[in-house]
């Protein structure tokens, strides 16, 4: 096993006693330029934190709050080179906020159905959202010549007659293939054509509910994990499981790094594990003793890791930094 300092040194984490959220933090998102950390909470608010690096001395400071949702925040995404941030909520909407002004410039309505997940395609052309009503909404982003968002229209509501019959908890667009995936209160991974929304196939190997998936950033692979204490690596060319990993606990979060050589997993027992993707071996394991479950966010280049422990009081954000690319 590699030394922990090669990735994240948990002994040197920055702990911020939260001075904004009044309830559990359920989602983190870090901007592509590593300047901003966004947190979304069951208290209905999104808070933007500025990540400060002053000659190697790092800190985070509350910058502004975005308030307008009437229920808890379920998902976050920075958009268009970090000019905007989008938030999904159990109130049945996705809201688009302008970061500099703090204004909500668009609200996308889900017919009063809770929004659990949404994603933005790599070209910032469309937003896809899904949730409690097990329907998928495709939204088209209209821009001006300076790439300012001037309108978002509902392009399509996907026909899911042959698709999921239960809530959709996760939706992800593949970064290099014209597909997206959804999982929810079933043990099936649904693959859809992007952007048409036509059902392509169903990946059926899990025996219990799937909590998390992630596409490999460059190759036709997908990782999935959930309640049954196994992580599966899928080959999307033949739609078969190429590897099973015994996880020992339910997996709640999975994420590839930017080059796809490693992936990170989070378990319901608060274990954070980093794997070598090619050798399928553990490079680092860390157990977080506080709290019962973890909300985790990691930057695209894997230089910043944000953690919040459920049921921990006072509510805190723990931030770790790494120089490994």
Task: Characterize the structure shown.
With 325 residues, the chain is mostly beta strands. The chain has a single domain (4-321), classed as YVTN repeat-like/Quinoprotein amine dehydrogenase (Methylamine Dehydrogenase, Chain H, 7 Propeller). Helix content is 0%, strand content 56%. The protein is built from no helices and 28 strands. The chain has a four-stranded antiparallel sheet, with no helix packed on it. A hairpin with a 5-residue loop joins strand 8 and strand 9. The radius of gyration is 19 Å and the shape is globular. 41% of the residues are buried. The model is unreliable at 1-5 (pLDDT under 50).
Our count of domains comes out at: 1
| Residues in β-strands, percent | over 45%
Give the tally of β-strands. Answer: 28
Architecture, according to CATH? 7 Propeller
Task: Give the CATH H-level superfamily.
Answer: YVTN repeat-like/Quinoprotein amine dehydrogenase
The gyration radius over C-alpha positions equals 19 Å
Written as H for each helix and E for each strand, in order along the chain, the element string is: EEEEEEEEEEEEEEEEEEEEEEEEEEEE
* Secondary structure category: mainly beta
Q: Treating each run of at least 4 consecutive H or I residues as one helix, how many helices? A: 0
CATH topology: Methylamine Dehydrogenase, Chain H
Distance between the termini: 18 Å
- Give the % helix: under 10%
Coarse shape: globular
Which blocks of ≥5 consecutive residues have pLDDT under 50? Answer: 1-5
What is the average of the pLDDT values?
92
Top-tier CATH class: Mainly Beta
- Spatial order of the strands in the main sheet? 1-28-27-26
Main sheet: strands, sense, barrel:
4 strands, antiparallel
């Amino acid at each position: 096993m590699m030394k922990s300092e090669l990735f994240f040194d948990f002994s040197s984490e920055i702990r911020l006693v939260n001075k904004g959220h009044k309830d559990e933090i359920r989602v983190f998102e870090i901007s592509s330029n590593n300047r901003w950390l966004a947190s979304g909470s069951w208290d209905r608010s999104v808070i933007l934190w500025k990540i400060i690096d002053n000659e190697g001395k790092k800190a985070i400071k509350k910058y502004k709050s975005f308030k307008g949702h009437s229920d808890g925040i379920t998902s976050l995404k920075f958009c268009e080179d970090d000019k905007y941030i989008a938030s999904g909520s159990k109130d049945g909407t996705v809201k688009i906020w302008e970061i500099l002004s703090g204004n909500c410039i668009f609200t996308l309505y889900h017919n009063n159905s809770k929004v659990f997940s949404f994603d933005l395609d790599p070209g910032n052309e469309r937003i896809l959202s899904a949730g409690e009503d097990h329907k998928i909404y495709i939204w088209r982003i209209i821009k001006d010549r300076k790439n300012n968002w001037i309108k978002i229209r509902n392009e399509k509501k996907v026909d899911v007659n042959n698709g999921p019959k239960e809530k959709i908890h996760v939706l992800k667009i593949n970064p290099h293939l014209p597909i997206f995936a959804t999982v929810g209160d079933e043990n099936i991974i649904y693959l859809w054509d992007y952007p048409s929304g036509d059902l392509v196939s169903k990946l059926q190997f899990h025996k219990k509910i799937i909590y998390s998936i992630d596409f490999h950033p460059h190759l036709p692979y997908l990782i999935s994990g959930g309640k049954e204490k196994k992580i599966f690596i899928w080959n999307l060319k033949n739609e078969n499981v190429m590897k099973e990993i015994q996880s020992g606990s339910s997996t709640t979060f999975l994420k590839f790094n930017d080059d796809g050589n490693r992936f990170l997993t989070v378990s319901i027992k608060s274990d954070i594990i980093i794997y070598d993707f090619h050798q399928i071996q553990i490079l680092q394991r860390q157990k977080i003793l506080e709290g019962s479950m973890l909300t985790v966010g990691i930057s695209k280049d894997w230089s910043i890791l944000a953690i919040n422990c459920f049921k921990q009081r006072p509510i805190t954000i723990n931030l770790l930094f790494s120089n490994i690319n």
